[in-house]
């Protein structure tokens, strides 16, 4: 009897941990979740720190007055569409080119691809800067307030130097990520972000530049960021094989780069532009300074939340592409499901912070009692959109990994511009909801986009994709997968 009792107790001790592990795995694969979070967290920190450079300037000049707040937030939104969306999209080609070359041990090609992408980004920076010189007539043509348009245009002109630094910076960051260098990025983003607080405060309040001090400080801090990362790539020994100096060979890969960069940029810009259209629509409403500020603050808050999810999106894209490249589509789908669960958890936490902490958050942007009161009423709608955006952010990363960017372009076009924005116009201008109606329409578009992407990932065929149209055997084969590499932390 005693032996029997001991045997039963041993069996219970052995099976309980197994049952517990099995129970937890039904909810979330802890091992896979840890793997993704270890990759995502440094990216999240880096992205937030870089974004804080532009956000801090907007916050500081916003306290100069309601007109300055409206102009700065509108300018920052314009920067998000024309600079962030375009440059992040264009640099996305390096995920494929540098990642595939690094996995194939063609290390010298990484530096060539980086230079090719920088050339493309530099050309687009010139085009965008010309557009920025005509910001005021463009905004007036879009029926924005003359005063707000003039203020926003002034902000953009002093932000032009920072545009060129930002375009090169985005490519260098991709260059590092494809080599699984993540932890150093936190250091190189924290230094300029911390320094920027002092620079921006000094330029806005002590230099006499006042409003113009915000964009001037942003440009200076972006150049500091670009120089820091650039020197790291040039002089760190770990890149002696992947960066071998400047080469004219990079011009041979401009077209190959563009074939990957343009669809990715279009995918991002269509989505981000939809948010900015709401800002423009808010400028057509009565009391445009208040409505423009509110919608712009909501859009910037949504972007801040998305920056947190972006790390998971990048991790999901990497994991899915790695598994597809290894011929393991089921493991790729499993990685996506883990990413989705983590994104929902993070999005839900951020939504709760907005619902219960909106009073603290809005004080970072404005001290106006009117704006504080109105923001409290739109906070629940903002929380819903953040949760939806969290899910679609990971799904977009999966789409990039699977090579479905062209399909995603049509999805974004249909859900935002044929569903979301028309509903926004109807609810915003034909009902008493006004700016709330604008945001409800956006929620409808996000819901349709998220649902469509879920169906796409559910029913589409998950296979490795060859994006190379070159039949020359000497040309590298460009595929949307990379070898799984360990994360460097040194």
Question: How does this structure look, described?
Answer:
The chain crosses the membrane at residues 37-65, 77-98, 110-132, 152-169, 181-204, 216-236, 257-283, 342-363, 375-395, 407-429, 435-456. InterPro entries: MATE_euk (IPR045069), MATE_fam (IPR002528). It comes from Medicago truncatula. Keywords: Membrane, Transmembrane, Transmembrane helix. It is found in: Membrane. With 490 residues, this protein is mainly α. The chain has one domain. 80% of the residues lie in helices and 0% in strands. The protein has helices at residues 2-27, 30-62, 66-91, 93-103, 108-133, 135-141, 146-157, 160-177, 183-205, 213-235, 254-282, 288-325, 329-362, 369-402, 405-429, 435-459. α3 (66-91) packs across α7 and α11 (254-282) packs antiparallel against α16. The longest helix has 38 residues, at 288-325. The relative contact order is 0.13.
Largest sheet entry: none
| H and E string | HHHHHHHHHHHHHHHH
Using the alpha-carbon principal axes, give the shape: globular
Total tally of structural domains: 1
Distance between the termini: 58 Å
- Report strand %: under 5%
Give unreliable regions as ranges: 1-17, 467-490
Radius of gyration: 24 Å
User: In which range does the helix fraction lie?
Assistant: over 70%
User: Helical stretch count?
Assistant: 16
Can you count the beta strands?
0
Q: Note the quaternary state here.
A: single chain
The pLDDT mean sits at 81
Given the helix and strand composition, which structural class is it? mainly alpha
């Amino acid at each position: 009897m005693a032996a029997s009792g001991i045997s039963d107790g041993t069996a219970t001790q052995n099976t309980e941990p197994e049952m517990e592990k099995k129970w937890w795995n039904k909810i979330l694969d802890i091992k896979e979740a840890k793997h993704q979070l270890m990759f995502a967290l440094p990216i999240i920190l880096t992205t937030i720190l870089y974004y804080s450079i532009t956000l801090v300037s907007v916050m500081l000049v916003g306290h100069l007055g309601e007109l300055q707040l409206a102009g700065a937030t509108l300018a920052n939104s314009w920067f998000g569409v024309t600079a962030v969306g375009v440059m992040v999209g264009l640099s996305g080609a390096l995920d494929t080119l540098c990642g595939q070359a690094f996995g194939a041990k063609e290390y010298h090609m990484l530096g060539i691809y980086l230079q090719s992408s920088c050339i493309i980004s530099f050309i687009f920076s010139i085009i965008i800067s010309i557009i920025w010189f005509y910001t005021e007539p463009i905004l007036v043509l879009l029926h924005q307030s003359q005063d707000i348009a003039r203020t926003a245009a002034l902000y953009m002109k002093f932000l032009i130097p920072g545009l060129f630094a930002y375009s090169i910076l985005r490519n260098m960051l991709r260059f590092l990520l494809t080599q699984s260098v993540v932890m150093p990025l936190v250091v190189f983003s924290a230094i300029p972000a911390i320094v920027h607080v002092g620079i921006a405060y000094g330029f806005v309040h002590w230099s006499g530049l006042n409003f113009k001090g915000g964009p001037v400080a942003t440009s200076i801090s972006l150049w500091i960021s670009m120089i820091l990362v650039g020197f790291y790539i040039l002089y760190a020994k770990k890149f002696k094989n992947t960066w071998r100096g400047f080469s004219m060979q990079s011009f041979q890969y401009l077209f190959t780069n563009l074939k990957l960069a343009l669809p990715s940029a279009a995918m991002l810009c269509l989505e981000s532009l939809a948010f900015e259209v709401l800002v423009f629509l808010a400028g057509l409403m009565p009391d445009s300074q208040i409505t423009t500020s509110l919608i712009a603050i909501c859009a910037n808050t949504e972007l801040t939340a998305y920056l947190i999810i972006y790390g998971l999106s990048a991790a999901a894209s990497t994991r899915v592409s790695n598994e597809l490249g290894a011929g393991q589509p089921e493991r790729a789908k499993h990685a996506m499901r883990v990413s989705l669960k983590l994104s929902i958890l993070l999005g839900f936490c951020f939504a709760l912070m907005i619902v219960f902490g909106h009073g603290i958050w809005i004080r970072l942007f404005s001290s106006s009692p009117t704006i504080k009161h109105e923001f409290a009423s739109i906070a629940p709608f903002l929380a819903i959109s953040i949760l939806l955006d969290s899910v679609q952010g990971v799904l977009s990363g999966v789409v990039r990994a699977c090579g479905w960017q062209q399909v995603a372009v049509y999805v974004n076009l249909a859900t935002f511009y044929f569903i979301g924005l028309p509903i926004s116009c109807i609810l915003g201008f034909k009902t008493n909801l006004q700016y709330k109606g604008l945001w409800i329409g956006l929620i409808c578009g996000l819901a349709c986009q998220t649902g469509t992407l879920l169906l796409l990932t559910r029913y589409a065929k998950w296979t490795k994709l060859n994006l190379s149209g070159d039949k020359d055997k000497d040309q590298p084969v460009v595929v949307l997968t990379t070898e799984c590499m360990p994360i460097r932390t040194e």
